[in-house]
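TEACHING EXERCISE
Course module: macromolecular assemblies
Task: Read the component lines below, then compare them to the predicted structure of the full complex.
Student: A.B.
Group: 4
Components provided:
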Amino acid sequence: MKRRSPVTGMVLLLVSILVFFFLNLLLGSVSIPAGQVWKALWGGAADNPIWGNIVLKSRLPQALTALVAGAGLSVAGLQMQTVFRNPLAGPSVLGVSSGASLGVAFVVLLSGRIGGIALSRLGVMGEVAMTLAAIVGALAIMALIVYVAQKVRGNVTLLIIGVMIGYVATAIIGVLKFFSAEEDVRAYVVWGLGSFARVSGGQVTTFAILMAILLPLSFLLVKTLNLMLLGDGYARNLGLNVRRSRIAVITCAGILVAVVTAYCGPISFLGLAVPHLCRAIFRTSDHRILMPASLLAGASLALFCNLIARMPGFEGALPVNSVTALIGAPVVAVVLFRKRKEEIQE
Amino acid sequence: MTHEETIRITALATGYTGKRHVKRVSEQLSGAIRSGELTCLLGSNGAGKSTLLRTLSAFLPPLGGEISLLGKPLESYSARALSTVIGVVLTERVALQNMSVEELVGMGRSPYTGFWGRLSEADRTQVSKALALVGIEPLRRRMVQTLSDGERQKVMIAKALAQETPIIFLDEPTAFLDYPSKVEILHLLHRLSHEAGKTVFLSTHDLELALQIADRIWLMDRGGSVHIGTPEELTEDGSLERFFSLPEEEKRIKIHFDLNKK
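Instructor-supplied answer key:
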């Protein structure tokens, strides 16, 4: 069975990112000529000042958010799938995104009752509070998971505990919802749909910088991840400290998910699907290739999904989560079917 | 080829430590394993073969007694140092997808590679040497998931060879193989121990094959004690017979069971 050269694949992914990125700036409910978009992007004044505003203040932050969020979730998904040696593991598997939801639920749903004002009326302040709450919630759950990871030996046990923590968080959110005002529940539900559009201009810089620091850090774990593929016994025999490595990988993936979820809400599916896609495209399990591939493919797919969600007619009303699943599910199914066929032919 | 004592265990006790209680599997094990020899560990299920191998590989802490590797106590080795002294082939089947034989054998070079795990020219030479020694060069570019069980076992042995360790432990390397493959694997290991001067220590249920091929046999009984000798010695002094002094009927049932397990 021949393998494609990874370089060609990477270049293609990179090109697709550039294309989708520009399309993200170009397409939307207001039609702006491509030349004007280009001009606005490089600091020039567009013929119509509104156009410049739309491109720079709305479309650019959104495209940037989609790009880094997709990359982060996919890298985290790859790490989770390897550390648990489970193809169904994804960024949400350890309850980290449920933790973020819990944090947001506390702030959104309780502020109405305690402070007497609905957070949804607070505007930007509310947004910042939600982001902070999500980060605190996600990191709290992650700390809990890392603590448990030190105690339990088996991966499966840890996985089950993570899923259980997720259920408990969801249950608490359910209780909070029951006691909350209707408009607060609505605000929470909207957050839960996930969106690349919520991150405003100032926040997107913070978000992008955070991810620009975190993503390279996750690349430091490629040798560890490759050894983990062999299973605990072999990895240990080859000199890997299995327990410490497991905690390092979980921490890295957890923080990535926490940050992305804080800014975009729980985005499902990308993190689960993209690593599978990359394994199928590059036909390798070497993380030195899979890691950059997942990063690029995740960014590209997220931009594409964002584009679909914003297609004329939907007017940005289509939740990104619906799009990721609608596009992602068939793609994964097709890839897996093709793989099965190839295996039979071999 | 020199036959030096590479592993010595003295009054070793093996077992598992739980939170509240300690499960002792074997006690008072003593013996030596030499380089340039194929040593087979025989014993019925539950006699503690795997536990002994796990303890010797430092996966499990010993409950008592001493293990000496190349003249130094086992606990004096760091995990990193140990990875260049002991190579293992485990019973667990590695569920790998999309990894070529060459890459998997290359993983054996991990203790020597740098931060990113990139193989140097010297590493690649070692990988080729390991593939050649095991005789699986034609499989080099095949994906691991397309291999038969016997081929897979050879790849894992090649991985252990690429690791360049003086000692190789194998936990039931013949367990899931058909008879010709069993013979092939054991002959291969015999050849490796003699030609490359490795210390090869493996556990197996294939009594007759082990008696024919091994240089030295460790017989482990359920009581956790061990008899050591060449196949001839063990046959002559009657310990083999004593060891398998099950009634004829029971033995047949066991063999039948073993066959079914495959």
